[in-house]
Known about the structure:
Elements: E1 2-6, H1 10-23, E2 28-32, H2 35-44, E3 50-54, H3 62-72, E4 77-82, H4 87-95, E5 100-103, H5 108-119, H6 128-132, H7 134-137, H8 140-144, H9 147-156, H10 162-169, H11 173-187, H12 192-207
Parallel strand pairs: 1-2, 1-3, 3-4, 4-5
Helix pairs in contact: 10-11
Amino acid sequence: MKILIIGSQFFVRAGLIQVLTGFSDDLAIFEAPTFAIAQEYLRHQTDYNLIFLDMDIPDAEIRPCLQTLKKISPTAHIVLLSWPRPLSEIRQALSNGVRSYLPKDASAEEAKQAIRILLQNDRYLPEESRLSDVTTRQGPAEHFLSPRQLEIMQLLAQGLSNKEIATILGITEGTIRVHLSAIFKAIKVSNRTEATLWYLLRQKRLVN
Length: 208
């Protein structure tokens, strides 16, 4: 079985590989920390059985990613990875070509059950009750931003430069710029000053 994992977070990829190889040694697993690298893989071979796609991939938006994957590798079973999201977002992804959904905060047993099912080429979705309360557990910012983007916003609000933020988080300045562009679009601002003001006002509301 040939598997492609597309996600920027090393520990997420490594953990997924560990669970996958715990079930079978007969796996060819390829890792892509960016969607650009994933496209390079896909140019050379398209016959992937499973493609795990992180919803928070920093260098592309989810809908164009799905369109590209379905065009290049139409028979692949696409599995969406993400931190908890509103059910409406997951349903939208499912309607755009995703077959299965695996939350990043799944327990060890949930993850093992999901991988067991996926390796049998069956569809995996967590119980709907586990998804439907996301909006009540998260504030408005968490509807828009990934945990990584919230980390960047926190550092941005401290007046740090892109270079300083990249050094602290152990990623490149280019990745920071990609994240900031996505953040500005998500919270509907046009620059760093407006984004900082948005974040500080949000923090003030949470304290009050």
